[in-house]
Amino acid sequence: MELPKPRGPLSATLVDALAGPPRTLLPLVNLSGDPLADEDLQLALHIGYELHYRGFDGVDDGWEWHPSRLALHQAAERRFESALRRLVPMPDPVPANEVPRALAAIVEADDGPPLSKYLTGRATLEQFREFVMHRSVYHHREADPHTWAIPRLTGRAKAALVEIQADEYGGGRLERMHAELFRTTMRELGLDTAYGAYLGQAPAVTLAINNLMSLFGINRRLLGAIVGHLAVYEMTSSLPNRRYGNGLRRLGFGADATRFYDEHVEADAVHEQIAAHDLCGSFCAEAGPEQTSLLLFGAACALALDARFAGHLLDRWAAGESSLRDQSSIANGRPLAGALGA
């Protein structure tokens, strides 16, 4: 994957630096605006996190753990996390045996825009293709952000997460890996299946969803949050995926296009119980009240950012506009003055 075009001074500083050998970056100051909607900030975060996944073509691997690059990333990450904590108040801890019920209550209280209903019954082919382009930013990494938690868990919770992730990775069979099934869907829709192909067209609201997973997954202090994030994803997956599959069938597509969504209808119905009880319940029985609060926080953040994403798509489509970024109007941006060292 090539480095994306910058969207402002922060991402321009980072892209410009990564194009060369590792060197000192000066700290950034005076970052402002809403971090959750900031195109520049969200792209810079995504680039920084990607260095811990597959990286970018031509970028020196030494940048992954370069101290000044990390300092730049952490400054942006702190703003992102602070915005999340303002958006979603930290829940009170609950006893471990009450965690599944508390997760169910968070799901029940969610009143996000009805994106899946729109896609199943009203979306045009072009709108459905746009939805898949947005989601490709995550589904090309399907399961990877949550896998960060495996070496940090123990006992029954670890076994439960491994069971879920084994299904996500197709039980070791390439053709059954969920990321590969999604590529088939993209291919059937006439889309580019390359990893990160639509990163440049994904707006901040899409990148924020993916950055949330990486924030929770990579930072060990937020272990509870990534566990809760996974649990709520499994608990809210089956019905929307049934609708997505039905939407593609309405548009005339067959089993190859819908297999990714159909697979999730069955698999996630099982994963829901494993995640809520075996994973989260066991984890909280050992982790203590702070991680229990983080677990519920992670779940609530997942639903909150998904609601913002759904609202963005439905609002743009209602206005007769694309939900993707207009590449013809994207400015390259300029590096922040004084941000690059020699």
TrEMBL record:
InterPro entries: Haem_Oase-like_multi-hlx, PqqC-like. The keyword Signal does not apply. Keywords: Oxidoreductase. One of its GO terms (molecular function) is oxidoreductase activity. It comes from the Bacteria. SUPFAM superfamilies: Heme oxygenase-like (SSF48613). This is Heme oxygenase-like protein.
